[in-house]
Amino acid sequence: MEMWSWILWISGSVIGLYIITATIFLLLAKISKDDDGYLILDPESWHFKMAFPIARYWESNILKMHLRIGLCRYVMKFVLMLYVGWPIIIIIVVLEMIVFSPIVFLFGFRITFKLEDLKGLDDGPFAVNCKRIQWIPEIRLTKIYPIYLTIPLIYFTLYYFYSEMTLTITIWTGGIIGIIIAVILIVSGIGWIKDTDQHKVSLVRETLKSRARGFCPLMKIKDVERYK
What we know:
Layout: H1 2-28, E1 32-33, E2 39-40, H2 46-51, H3 55-65, H4 71-106, E3 109-112, E4 129-132, E5 138-139, E6 142-143, H5 146-161, H6 163-194, H7 203-213
Antiparallel strand pairs: 1-2, 3-4, 5-6
Helix pairs in contact: 5-6
């Protein structure tokens, strides 16, 4: 029960701190006004980007907003995003980093996040941007990605604790992979023997194909006129 009390206390503190911070941001938001009294909405202002975080949306509709978007409507949009939309975005980004960071790390990447990355939300809320890790060690210009070490480590760990089960799975997996490779080789070999739609063909393939047909074809000499 004490653990849940701590969780509720921490959650309430985070939510309260966010609400206070968002309110400060709201009170600090400013907008310009020209000599004619028109309010000037700057698409590069921070509050505009918070109100419209998906840049592709407002970039394609910016002309429609000119002299058509009212102050009250804009403020409502800004407040809604500030107190509801951005918490959802933050939760999505945090969950993405928790779930995908270990996966992309195995292949030598790390997840990056900037406000500009929210353009990816047009492609779905789980779109992530990755950047290659520069400090991956190399051996003879071959990068040693963590996945190369993780798979053997997991295998030997399983073998150590569950040797019989791991050995059985290994034998079955090896057998299935062997059958698949054999089928692929047989199919490729049949196609390799039958394929004649080439100007350059394998001498071995043509010999095998000829033996299968029961006769050996005659061959021409290239540029035979040169030898006359």
